[in-house]
């Protein structure tokens, strides 16, 4: 790999192209195709593809080549539309019902500017975007009229199929059908490339809006104490313990009852509705685990400290109210008195806190009404109810800790039951933070405190998106606010824990005053109950108190004063009050906050006033013109301040005043402003003040403590601009819009100071660059993918405008004064650049009238046309002004004001400043180039739009100087790209420049912009550098994403080309000879298909893109990028409504004709989609398929040869994209043009094109596996699958599917959203895990789209194949090409296809066969076999149209084959083999459908009048019947996949059906062998292989007579008696000489040897070593004949091994256990009343097989439907339940006649070649199974099977049954013989087995043996039977007993010799028992039946 890379680096790109060409040449490329690679071209001025050609002068070309089209869509695309660019003013959305503006108007210029900045409309450039970017293209949701194919009647015959029609007519008809209802847009069906985010995507920035964190709604429901005696006032606020910061303002609420409120009536004015709110919305930007919701309670001031006042609340309980009635009454009356007198004052009472995250986290769970111990204190608990409200999603962006999200928790209802008493000396925030931190500890100090019990109920939930009835912190109503009388919800202002960087967008001006502590310890006199009165004054008179203090709860909106809460008897109190003030917009020096300290007397004493003033202090609001805020420690005066105090600070020691504690600071207070007017930053304040000073032009200016005169204004201004870098970032961001506006203004209109124009362009540019970089650096989270800071991009997009370009009004404050000059350009430049640069002014400017009518007008026109032209020194300007002024005797002032016409040259100044900048400024500007580029573009657009220059020719729009500056900038960036090592910077610069040039194409001379593109592209090309490569492609992609990309590629030239070609075509038709035009025309066409120099010059951008594609060296890395550029371009053309007209699209496609050649050339490098195999075959080949795929293909006599291709280096994804692009061009390009080009291609090139199409078929095959979908959420899989398949493969189009889903009530997201966005995560090649997450609707939709894509792609391929066929049908080389066409067609049939496609595909196939019949039947015979398989597969489709077409095709195939040679043997044979292959491999195959198709073929044959008289219809009928028979059996196999015995039976029957097709029979035998091996039935597998070998031997002996080969199957008799069935019976046999018969690899000597060796191996595995020997007996002669000593050595080795094992395993071998199984019941179908012998593995118990069969059939029919018959009696079917299935299972043993036993000596003999089996059934005559000995009969059943075990299957039918019944005495004889045998065996066993012997003995002589030997003897031998027939039995039994006693004696003797001393007693007991038995038997044994011994008796008597 490393070597390859090194090599790749050494060669230049041109050489690489050469190398490529050679590779391509080996493929047979003609020079024509590869001219584009700069090799052997005829053009003299060749430019290699690695270099950019010079673009044509675009504007010039358009003028010199007037359009040849009159009008219509083609004409519209020649030039950009006239309304391409507009500037639109959109009103900004206002949250509130009324706009937030200052009440007193905007007198102050700064306030005016701020308010304008917050209220003016957005100025948005509208570049009409008609096309969609790739990502906006919905994939398939609106896909037009998809596939509206109506289901024809089931398998109707195709009309006119049998008519003879001219080929041309058929072709025309097929084409019309194919072209109808096609998808207009290919890419709508293709997923976008899987990219992060398309780089050309420029997101519209978010509209600037007010900042909110995550919002929380808190509703206060009720507050109830144990006793209700007085009003209680509550407030809520949020605190962050970690930051030690209060993070919200207070929310005051009042939950008192009306009755309680009435106690305060004298003190309450009418309550404003805003103060009655009980719910609040809190905003939290930085949620964390440290946030607490703190609730504080206050009550009316009363005598006594807090502890005393709280005592009753702790002591009394509600339950004891009756008991304590009197005490409560007393308390209530006291409270009433205090309320009357002290109702104005409050005192702290109690507090509590809620840990917010505990609530949020536990609210996520599903507990209901659970008691939550919050670990606060023993009884401290909160109860919460999960509210009924559902979750509300609240999508607010905050950078809070993810684990602390407040957006999705379940609403919770909290009940707070405990409050803590406020400690008078611990009221400060510091104390609170300690308490809160302590609360989180398990051992909280607070737990030990006695709580105040109460019940406060709160609802906490995520705030809804648009709550109704909401008031802002400024009390403005938020939309929607339907009714002003409804109790509102308050939005609570957040004080974020950390800085928030969001520009101000609304007017807000609030001040919060927080008194903190007071120290009157050293004050003389009585001052103990202290309250502070706070007032906001605008003068010193008491009446100057302003009503701007916000009310708390149940009071007026605003008041003039606020009092702090009183801490009883405390001279140094802490305060926790917050006073909220609405600041006036404009402040003067007299505005101040006045604090008055009072002592409140709680006790009512005579002559004592209620409040006594005890001190005064104040804070002036302004200091040096800036707002004063922060912490203050103020001295307190004992007397009222003197006059004019307010302009001084109390720190100043005023003469004659008395101060507390010697003028030391004793009062701590904090003042916080939340203002969008006051920047609270000294540098910003100074800058704004100076700018406004310029506006006002009032000198000297006071700024801070400085006085600035006009003469030093310039230096101050410049230094204040530079100092902006020092300002804090947060205020800079807050005032960003205003700040940037002011800087722009200073650039555009340098001020005139003291008669001099001051150029501030450079200073402003520098500070702008600096600010932009600061934002980028510190706020990197708010950047888009291009590194654009969102705050800046939204400024440019919405806020920025050229000063005074607003059509409605001149922007106030952006220059309403005279003191700005318009001489914008005076930056320092080399003198040489300064010569004669002039600016032209548009003649169409409405501000300049054509003929001056008055001196004023004339002056204006002169100044307009002259002065603005100048680039000159200041003195020259002034001289000109003076001359104008003098010549028209006008005051100079007028002239200067005339000058004030807006210049709008900001972009020129910006470009200039950028070009001349250097060092860190230039670096900074480059870092954020996007910002300046976008500003420039917006400035240009505004300039052109508002001066009406958009109509003027592009060449005259901009001065040369500006063009030079732009060129300089582009080269600066190109140089930077080479030198910089910062990759991110390079990427940002690259995209910024690309977007800039893209924008310039809309407004500038396009030829000029092309040269810029070329210059930059060349710079990036010179370095062989992968990074630059990637940048270059990104650059190209962005530039090409231009809205009018097609127009930019000289659309006019394309139209011209097309007209030329069509003219030639018409002429050639007339002259019947294209000779005269052919050269010119060929050259034209060749140029269109190549990247020739003219092509690249005229179609500049397309040329660049395609050049990049054609020279890709490293497809793995850059390949995807280049391909995605092309993919996205074509995709956007496809969905663009402007190109919807097919004629237009065909012209657009001409821009991409070279793509065909390029893709053909990259064919060897593309991903090989064919390697995977088609998923149709894959799906069928998996699972437990019967036949391996290769075997199946071999059976069908086919194989699918894919083109031999080296493995490509393009990824699958790039290849797929490249191919879809190719298909798009083929689909949309003009057919005539394509046909003309195909004619010129060589055979090898056409073949390469066909290979490419073959690859396309595999690539776009429909691959969504329905099984994946079924396994998901829906279980109604069958129905679902059918519906889906119908939709995908059948007739429902996506459109109908959408409509249907829309109508259905449960419309999913897919149905309901018409303009569905194609989602990236829905590409079907993503991993399954992602698939699992999709909804059913998504999966259905995706499947639908993919199905439609597959169809459309294949139809395009079909269209192309048709063009190729038409092109080559007249040439000599047609054979090789047509073979290729057929190959592609067949391949497409093999893949998953839709009904629609197959219908057209079959039509094309029929036409092809009818045009070139010899092609299929003589040349491409392999493909004939393939075609038969494909057609047959389609004949079994579930969709009737597919079946109809496939049947028609198959019928015509037979017919055409018949017509050629009077029989259709080839098709007949191929179809039979195909059927076998199909049913063997296909899992989802349906016999019913295939039957229907067979019927259809028969019908065609019957209706075919032309051939009725021939043998053809009969031949068809024979074939169909034969197929039907095979089909029925094969299909049953499908049903019995899980039933191994049935499966093997069916395979056996099918194999038998193929008795006449040796190849197929062999295949099925091998399949059976495979199945047996899988189940470890090695003996059966071996038998299958022996049968296979016998079959092969039969046919080999027919072919050649070789002595050493087996003579057919007879030779194999010794291995198995069953093998004779393989003999080839004469009349059936197909001669092995016929082609296609016995052609498999096994029908050879080597094949035979292979089969036998496999058989020997299987026998060996089965342990049947004797059979191994027999197999080798057949093999040895063959190897001997071949003198193969090595093989013979191996065989003898194996034989030795086999015989060794026989010896070694003697007595330990086990072969099988046999059972008779009978099936009864109609549920079993074919098996009903069938009986089999099953062979099971050795030592299988009856229970095991019984359990297996019962389980298997129970699963199949239902457990309650299957019963096992427990006995083995004959079954009477009439007595069985007809609805059930019955199985009878009996253990059987092999049965041999006596004569057989002499041959069956060994264990193997007794277990091999078994055909007879026996089982016994006990019964009594009265029907019971068992009875007493004398009534116990036995039935012995002998079964004979059709074949001998082991056989090629594990169960064999029983063909014969005989029964033998034994009488009770015969049963007894058998039993005794058996016992005797057992004794004999145990006695003589070697080695002896004592245990076994004792067991048998115990059973023979033990006294306890029931029905033992003694009882048998007593029953049958005690009396001589009356029936003479029984004499023999009696005697036989007697002799048996004699033998038995003898054997017992032997056994006892043997046992004695075996036992140890411990068993002596046991032996004696056995012997005693034996003697007892012998004595008892003695008389019975000795009693003989006289009749049997008659002759002997006579003799004796005679003596």
Question: Would you write up a description of this structure?
Answer:
- The longest helix is centred in the C-terminal third of the chain and has 33 residues, at about 1335-1370.
- Strand 25 and strand 26 form a beta hairpin.
- The protein folds into 8 domains: about 5-80 and about 1045-1150, no CATH class; about 160-190 and about 1165-1535, no CATH class; about 215-490, no CATH class; about 510-675, C2 domain (Immunoglobulin-like), CATH 2.60.40.150; about 850-900; about 1595-1705, DOCK DHR2 domain, lobe A (Serine Threonine Protein Phosphatase 5, Tetratricopeptide repeat, Alpha Horseshoe); about 1715-1860, no CATH class; about 1875-1995, Methane Monooxygenase Hydroxylase, Chain G, domain 1, CATH 1.20.58.740.
- Helices cover about 45% and strands about 10% of the residues.
- The chain is built from 69 helices and 39 strands.
- It is α+β, with helices and mostly antiparallel strands.
- The strands form 9 sheets. Strands 3, 4, 5, 6, 7, 8, 9, 10, 11, 12, 13, 14, 15 and 16 form a 14-stranded mixed sheet that branches. A 6-stranded antiparallel barrel has the order 33-34-39-38-37-36.
- Helix 28 (about 1025-1040) packs parallel to helix 34 (about 1115-1135), helix 43 packs parallel to helix 47 (about 1335-1370) and helix 48 (about 1375-1390) runs parallel beside helix 51.
